[in-house]
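Colleagues,

Please find the record for the two-part complex below.
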Amino acid sequence: ETGVTQTPRHLVMGMTNKKSLKCEQHLGHNAMYWYKQSAKKPLELMFVYNFKEQTENNSVPSRFSPECPNSSHLFLHLHTLQPEDSALYLCASSQGQDAYGYTFGSGTRLTVV
Amino acid sequence: AQKVTQAQTEISVVEKEDVTLDCVYETRDTTYYLFWYKQPPSGELVFLIRRNSFDEQNEISGRYSWNFQKSTSSFNFTITASQVVDSAVYFCALRGRTSGSRLTFGEGTQLTVNP
């Protein structure tokens, strides 16, 4: 399997639930990212990990908790979300932060009810 | 601060027409990178092109071409002889040399190519 794989593709959760989004890349990249894509808004960078270390947190609320156990895997743990958190969450990876281009996954469509 | 503006929210054309998607950017960095991505209905963003600020040469790749003009801070994308499969949301993005990994995206242009 190649590229960036995100699971699940769709997720519906209640505001009191706890769930996790998973991202896996098989490209040998060392940087991974979480982006949020809301309707009618530009893509927003949430977190950046480089060699498993978080290098950027774009003022994301603590109800979103990222985890990067190794350079190939990235998780986004969700708890007590709000309906306005409903969005497409995209994972991306790149070879270094000064990357030629980012490879994106297909995203997880999250609906908070 | 960085900003990318894609003034066209939606464009609808008939197959075989040429279409140009506009992108205007703002940055204080003298070294920066510009990107175009395609987002089909499946959701993933597909990388199309990267340009650095020192390379103003226009590029053509098949039916796709890009016109980079620093004087007007624009990086426009033209699809020649459009096809139904070109229907997607197209994003222009900018990364300044001093902005680390941060890609600043425009709001996207929804292109619909009708048969």
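Chain B touches chain A at residues 4, 35, 37, 42-47, 50, 91, 100-108 (CB under 8 Å).

Comments are welcome before we finalize the supplementary table.
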